[in-house]
Prior knowledge:
This protein is α/β, with parallel strands linked by helices. The chain has a single domain, classed as Rossmann fold. It is built from twelve helices and 13 strands. It has helices at 4-13, 26-37, 53-60, 78-84, 100-105, 107-126, 161-180, 206-215, 235-247, 268-283, 309-315, 323-337; strands spanning 17-21, 41-46, 68-72, 90-93, 132-138, 185-189, 192-193, 220-223, 229-230, 233-234, 256-260, 266-267, 291-294. Helix 7 (161-180) links the parallel strand 5 (132-138) and strand 6. Helix 2 (26-37) crosses helix 9, helix 8 (206-215) crosses helix 10 (268-283) and helix 8 packs across helix 12 (323-337). The mean pLDDT is 96. Bound molecules: nicotinamide-adenine-dinucleotide.
Amino acid sequence: MKTFDNYINHLKKNQYSWLITGAGGFIGSNLVNFLLSLNQKVVGLDNFSLGIKDELMNLTKNYNNDLFNLIEGDINDKDICFSALEKIDFVLHHAALGSVPRSISDPFSSNEANISGFLNMLIAARDSNIKNFIYASSSSAYGDHEALPKVEDVIGKPKNPYSITKYVNELYANTFSEHYSFKSIGLRYFNVFGPRQRENGDYAAVIPKWIKNILNNQDIEIYGDGETSRDFCYVDNAVQANIIAALSENEIAKGQVYNISVGNQTSLNKLLSMIHKNIENSIGEIIKIKPIYKDFRPGDIRHSRADISKAKNLLNYFPSHNVEQGIKETISWYIDKK
Ligand SMILES: NC(=O)c1ccc[n+]([C@@H]2O[C@H](COP(=O)([O-])OP(=O)(O)OC[C@H]3O[C@@H](n4cnc5c(N)ncnc54)[C@H](O)[C@@H]3O)[C@@H](O)[C@H]2O)c1
């Protein structure tokens, strides 16, 4: 089976057209950056409800301007989905409204973007000539099932509206495989982090928020006792998973979902001390931090850890970064940006 390096060499010699939905967002913009750096043609589709257009355009300015095309539009518009798919080889579908708390306060909008929008994309992709459709699922698909590590076939009941939307994506993908022989690949991401993740706003993820707060001498809030744990996944691992899934020639690998992370568990307390220590090392100063422990957040699960053997065996996925290596890269990116 080909390795990630083999696929990179293949892309250096062969130019394809990629559609990245959610290109203005965190994971989408990292995919755009990676593919443009390999001289691939990229169409980015985003309605910029969360993504930032100027940041995306600044990023793409670093490359030959024939390579990137932006479609500013909504995946709830069927015509946009169909026209975006013209002359595309691979789709990396990442447009969605993330965040469990956001979905609890506004389930309708999450449903619109994550389920109706997903279905539009799936129908348009089924009716086009693409080679492969990769979509972002989530570890939230495991719902209330507590067993660790999480294995793809063993899931529980969804715990919140976001988790329902990601589970429904997988159900639709599966049904399209059965009824229309349209096989896609779902990537169940586990807490992805890295450069360009939003650090501001009510729904910012924990790592960019804490890095920003520590750099600005602000308090750190921890929901619960800090022993809640997650399998934090550096964004380069997610990028790798998209590329190997899209280019995979292994027919058995298609029509499946995969855990994408590292396969390790880190508690919030440990994560905070790792970020704190790495920031101190990076800037060469002692920083005092004061974590404030708050109530557990509704809808959150207690622990999470991925079994990544399915992705290893069928896709040849081997994460390049563990949590600490990813934290170092992320901190240096935020410090450079400041
Ligand atoms: N970041 C994580 O830890 C994580 C974990 C599990 C799953 N995921 C999934 O990965 C994908 C990307 O996540 P992210 O962290 O990059 O999120 P993000 O919010 O940074 O990016 C999502 C992008 O989608 C765009 N978008 C939202 N609704 C849209 C619509 N209706 N039409 C067009 N564009 C729309 C937003 O403007 C944004 O730019 C999402 O599907 C998310 O659910 C992310």
